[in-house]
Queue: 2 jobs
Job 1
Amino acid sequence: MKNVYLDNNATTKVAPEVIEAMRPFLEEFWGNPSSMHAFGGQVRRDVDKARAAVARLLNAAPGEIVFTSCGTESDNMAIRGVLDAADGRLNIITTRVEHPAVLSTCRFLADRGHEVIELGVDGSGHIDLADLRKALDRGPALVSIMWANNETGVVFPIDEIARIVKAAGGIMHTDAVQVVGKLPIDLSQTPVDLLSLSGHKLHTPKGIGAIYIRKGTKIRPLILGGHQEEGKRAGTENVPYIVGLGRACELATARMKEEIDRVARLRDRLEQGIIASCPDVRVNGDPKNRLPNTANVSFEFIEGEAILYDLNDAGIAASSGSACTSGSLEPSHVLRAMGVPFTAAHGSVRFSLSRYNTETEIDYVIEKLPGIVGRLRALSPFVTA
Ligand code: PLP
């Protein structure tokens, strides 16, 4: 078998329906939505339709959605834009397991004199809400906590977190890049002020994202220029990609319920298959509160990268939590923050599924893995017996 793609938290296959929706805006409707003439008016309506589709998926108002280029831009805009617009100085509260789009932004701001509090996590990847309350006691704050972790799939109790933040008078941003399209979101119930999302995690091409900004939230634009996006994000709109994101959100809205069940069943089949056939494995994260598509598995005593190479040779794409930097293998900051032991953190592999995976593919992975793991363990300096 060739090409089993289990790296959907990195990026996803573009849905054929999305390509079909985008095509007319490359070939036929290429007007500028800001133009007064018919070429512009035509596409303006389609941009608005896409905005409404994004809003519907989040149960928000279309006027609260601003299109960006990606999740990273949305995260930067949320954090830097809110600080820039604040009357006084705000502390920043975040977690040690955020994506670099948030962590690097917060650390950049810490270098510029902002008070940044990074909350730690327990072994299952969760923050202690008492730590959050204590951090909020230190003064007015912008809180940026991800809805779900990209490496482990751990889903944070964002409802509860947002309520705590709002009760303390804070501003709440959540990086929902891994959640939008995978789990239901209802922003009429969850009181976050800002939310980031990224198209290429829900089957659009790379290069489109959005930020939800609750009505009344004070924010300055990150990108200055023209009056696009109600003055919140300058630059001529990326119409084909915006239309693509709208279509992807329609598909997610229509299929979410059925896909959650189907994908979770495949993920569980994979996980159980691995546990049954490979000794010394552990599943990282919180098995009860997890994205339906994600399994982060540690194979003790071997390097995740080595497994990935061999999986790749077998046509299987997954990813590891480790990053190979200057010859030394640094385990993932997420697994380190969770206190995952050294030998397990190094051997972690993330399998992330999508609507396009099949049972046959999962069974193929289960068939291939034990041989790969056994061979690598036989070579491992950490295995003595
Ligand atoms: N936040 C999370 C949780 C992510 O997983 C990612 C991408 O992996 C991003 C932000 C960045 O999104 P983008 O690739 O669209 O910039």
Job 2
Amino acid sequence: MQRVFSGIQPSGIPTLGNYLGAIRNWPPMIAGHECIFCVVDQHAITQPFDPRDLAAKTRDMAAALIACGVDPERCVLFVQSHVHAHTRLAWIFNCVSRIGWLNRMTQFKDKAGKDRENAGSGLYVYPNLMAADIHAYHATLVPVGDDQKQHLELANDIGQKFNHDYGADFFPTIQPMIQGVAARVMSLRDGTRKMSKSDPSDQSRINLTDDAETIALKIRRAKTDPEPLPADPSALEGRPEARNLVGILAAVTGREPADVLRDHEGQGFGTFKGVLTDALVAHLGPIQAEMQRLLADPGAVDAALRRGAERAAAIAEPIVDRAEELIGFLPRRK
Ligand code: TRP
């Protein structure tokens, strides 16, 4: 059975975009794999953050994962900073990874922006920590979005260089499982921008805590255009809002946009929005209810995460102990 590892940033209550783009791909993997899922709070501090709400955002993300079907009894679900093996291995990887490799990372360039001199050094070595997350478990399958592909290639370069330099066939090759770009969800107010937590308008996104009434209102107010829906998805080119709503309906009903259009060809958005609202409410309703239940009992979520951390450490500690031994560190224990 292959071991799966994936991480998600503690961005608080996920949006529909986080859900369709990443989270909903996780529960189906639990049946056929040994799954390890991590809320990466140490990665979160590589960019500006508020120490007053980091813990709550970490817990909220974990609660959302559980509500979406990431069952902490059937997989290992934990918080990155609770398992020290990650940073121990990350330090080794800081020394294995090459500055030339990190300089090629497009995400660093995007995130650091113009003022690169003033970026934290953690942001620069972010991919080394990510490689450590995965290699600390000898995981071989990593579900991620397209934007993380380059980081996984780097993780493989690091694993190979470690194996080569320390004469061991120790870290396995990682296979990315790149998740569909079709599930890229855009803002309800501007179809050219990603649906995002940081958009000042709550009307631009659907949150997993939104109830049926809120979802209905947001969809009713969503930006559209005056044209009827076409028969062919290629005709949605240049109509970003229409394309987004069709994509969302396709994603929540498990169909292709072409199939959605076959049902709604020639319709205006009035009818279409009603159908979309019903589909969203049917899909998200049970998640929202479970989420409310979990958010009302933060102690239970924290307890589940602590148990998850113990199970994660039981896997990762021996692997990182062995990596330290290969490096030549004096063993900490006999
Ligand atoms: N960098 C990933 C992201 O932003 C999150 C992440 C951290 C991750 N560690 C990981 C993903 C390990 C997969 C495996 O989405």
